Amino acid sequence: MHTVGPLRSLLLCAAGLLVLGAVFATGRWSARSAPALLTTAVLSGATGKLYLARRLRKHLGVRRFSRALPQPRPYPTPMLHNETCARWCVFTTINPPTAPVTQCASLRGWCVVVVGDKKSPPTYKVRAGNVVYLDPLAQQALPYRILRLLPWNHFGRKNLGYVYAIHHGAKVILDIDDDNELLPSAKLAGGLAPRLALLTHIRGTVHNVAVPGWHAPSGTAAFNPYPYFRMRADDATPEEEARYPAWPRGFPLDGVLDPTTRPQPRANSSASTAWPSSRQGQAQLGCIQLLADHDPDVDAIFRLSRRLPQSFGERQALLTLPAGTMAPFNAQALLVARAAFWGLLLPVSVNGRVSDIWRSFSWQRLMWNAELRLGFSSPLIKQVRNVHSFLADLNAELPLYERAGELIALLTRLPLRTAHLPGQIEEVVITLYEYGILELADVELTQAFLLDLVDIGYEFPPITLKPRRCRGQTSETIIYGGVCPVPASERLA
């Protein structure tokens, strides 16, 4: 039988490591300073300090998308591939070819791009004509602006794969890791096909699944989708499943045991195998997160305190989230519609364990303004995870534990002023820079990525959210979502 004790102990451990993480981040660590820092952390009080999102600095650089979009300067196409594809799997790897790469290559009508790195093998042999391997030399031949801004030996090299796929005709992208194997059901009638059909539905015919009986807690928009799909250890009892819910990496830890952040599964949920029917709606799906069985995407605290493997129930379902509600989603198995390609960019100024989660929160905030929605799907993936140190993962994930809830709150209330999507994307990344969530490198990378999309002919979806007027002392401000800014004269000191 589980107890809550291990979880609480690990949370305390994480709180202590936050102090050390801040020291490492600011470069003030040394063997001589370690005892004094630890003593200060222990003696400064009976508890630590909560992270509060505050503006720390001002962006003084150029805003490239505050007005009209720049005129495109088209790149030649295709670059390295003889034909374009409408469906692309995108990988980055430092490993030889794995089963997920060959599985994607075997999907009818799909192409695969694999982005290598300095640590990748010198040769990458897959017996399929629809696989493009971008080794470091091939990457240097690409014309994209983001190329010079991507660090080596970083998860963010995957960004080249996104741009390459879009440049080569992508209408749908499967953003996937090389340790996520497709389940046999992926190729069956109830597998990828209905999910792909949902991504290509026109606006007004969106698949929408009602989730009765839950409300977002006051002051936050965080939602935990895992209990809806009944994630549990293979030998867990129903009582354990209900009492100790699972949560995805990046979910605010103070909401894990809060029942208002999740729906209560129906008693007969595991018996239903029918794919839910579509209904009329005002939004369309931008992304579908494919859940993973065996070793789902959870944080290091979960892995250190719970039994593995874990799997989801046999529910054939799609759960879509309404505007105003966020859940973390990852880059390990994500179906993305062309209308949402603009959100694929992974930040590079944070660790890879943080990058895709910060991307997911920003992406959702912006999708609301374009009437796009996020969906979570029952599993089509089995993760056979590459070797990781859970303690090293915990260290890398410290910003998630500390900042996820505050970032969700910040983005939810953030007023956006630009009337087109590229300008709003730029607004969001600059805000995250000013709040110390991301660094200047990601502002510049985002601007380069948007210019690359313009030059390869990508058409951004329109902003469909109706603007709202905010009255100031001397003028009015037009905003798209969020909360009206408080005039400077009315702010508390």
Short description:
This protein starts with a helix and ends in a 14-residue tail after the last strand.
Keywords:
3 domains; disordered C terminus; alpha/beta; 29% helix; 493 residues; single chain
Description:
By secondary structure, the protein is an alpha/beta fold. It has three domains: about 5-45, no CATH class; about 85-175; about 180-455, no CATH class. About 30% of the residues lie in helices and about 15% in strands. The chain is built from 13 helices and 13 strands. It has helices at about 5-25, 35-45, 100-105, 135-140, 160-165, 190-200, 240-245, 300-305, 350-370, 390-395, 400-415, 420-435, 440-455, and strands spanning about 85-90, 110-115, 130-135, 170-175, 180, 230-235, 285-295, 310, 320, 335, 370-385, 470, 475-480. The strands form three sheets. Strands 1, 2, 3, 4, 5, 7, 9, 10 and 11 form a nine-stranded mixed β-sheet that branches. Strand 1, helix 3 (about 100-105) and strand 2 form a beta-alpha-beta unit. Helix 1 packs across helix 11 (about 400-415), helix 9 (about 350-370) runs parallel beside helix 11 (about 400-415) and helix 12 (about 420-435) runs antiparallel to helix 13. Mean pLDDT is about 80; it is low at about 1-5, about 15-45, about 200-220, about 265-280 and about 490-493.
